[in-house]
Amino acid sequence: MNLLYKSTRNSEKTVTASEAILKGLADDGGLFVPESIPKLDVTLDELKGMSYQETAYAVMKQFFTDFTEEELKHCINSAYDSKFDTEVIAPLVKVGDTYHLELFHGATIAFKDMALSILPHLLITSAKKNNVKNEIVILTATSGDTGKAALAGFADVPGTRIIVFYPKGGVSRIQELQMVTQKGENTSVVAIHGNFDHAQSGVKAIFEDKKLAEELADAGYQFSSANSINIGRLVPQVVYYVYAYAKLLENEEIKAGEKINVTVPTGNFGNILAAYYAKQMGVPIAKLICASNENKVLFDFFKTGVYDKNREFILTSSPSMDILISSNLERLIYTIAGQDAGKNAELMRQLKEEGVYEITEEMRGQLGDFVGGFATEEETKETIKNTYEKTGYVMDTHTAVAAHVCAQYRKESGDEKKCLVASTASPYKFIHSVMTAIDDKYAKKDEFELIDELSALSATEIPNAIKEIRNAQIRHNRECDSDKMKEIVKEILNV
């Protein structure tokens, strides 16, 4: 069966998986979604014995049906290799009474590596399949992690250029250093004066600029996206939820068919949407617990049915979740609107023009799989400290938000199902916040001074990604106002 994709804002036109990956965003500004979510064609019992790479193939072949077995396996094997510091790619660790799925063992020590190590291979394969001669320009906005993971994935990949925008002062020092020291002749990094939502809106506006697209085409370029709006980013994320369930089964932590809950620290909504897709594919997931920090726009949405971005933007210790426009939520809205592209497009118009929309009672009735929760800055710190004191396990700030919300949900609901927490970043990435949470005595120390202390405290080896930036040279120092992003792109590409 050939699975086709359509835009969340126009159901008439369909494209193949490779065309959707190449485009990133649909021409009408919508996001590509599969016409239906495919079911797994292997049993959970068969998945039990599979490696991460084999699981990836079992999941992705159902979505990317215009790729040959050889093409898809080449992409998978090129992505999930020695770039990861563990053969299992995504280890499952029991922490107290929950299971942490560690998604931070890739080149940039954050979960974005799970998808961004394969996206360049999917894109290049898609370009060949569709006879694309233009150079592909990856344009992306980042709240901290996507940027570095995309830069690392695309650095010196033939036929591509990558430009990353990030909010100046809105990412951790280590996140910033990882980006501005990035090597690669085809890489560019720009700090914008504004927050992540300004960066993301600027990138979307560039994608929707038809005149600019023509100018670029004349110069031999075309845009694509590495943000989680690209279906080539989202599908690889489905894999690790399937893999985690199979591992829980293999380790006899759960019985066959037993339902688990999944808690995901959520900003742009892609990571939790991937868990929702895994559930649709047949993984026995009960509740999808959406964990927010103090920018709790998603928590309020699940509670009230109103999505309202008109609020104060709060800078927190979990910056990758400091987001007020959760782009991937549009895919869920389209689904609960009964795949009514017109209804979805109208809600997205309201969001763009008024900053707020409200879904119908009927749509709210279809959100039963989801539960929202949030953690304050104080609760995030307490979770890091208490977990360390009780178990010796050190987690980053984003994972702590999820761990707190997971515990809170259990307490309030009485739901005792086993819970999987998506552990999205290494504590080394947010070292100052993590170490200060454990003990105030670290507050006055520099991030780089704390690296060795965290290593000793957690009995873990310092990741390569951290070792590399200790003495790396700053290579990118461009800055611009958020309304000048288009001009900067043209300048970088000499258009």
TrEMBL record:
Cofactor(s) for this UniProt protein: pyridoxal 5'-phosphate
Chain ranges of the Threonine synthase N-terminal domain: 5-80
Presence of keyword Membrane: no
Entry protein name: Threonine synthase
Residue span, Tryptophan synthase beta chain-like PALP domain: 101-421
Protein family per UniProt: Belongs to the threonine synthase family.
Pfam families: PALP, Thr_synth_N
Gene Ontology molecular function terms on file: threonine synthase activity
GO cellular component labels: cytoplasm
Keywords recorded for this protein, A-Z: Lyase, Pyridoxal phosphate
Keyword check for Lyase: yes
One of the GO BP terms on file: threonine biosynthetic process
Assigned EC number: 4.2.3.1
Post-translational modification N6-(pyridoxal phosphate)lysine, affected residues: 112
Organism: [Ruminococcus] torques ATCC 27756
Signal peptide: none
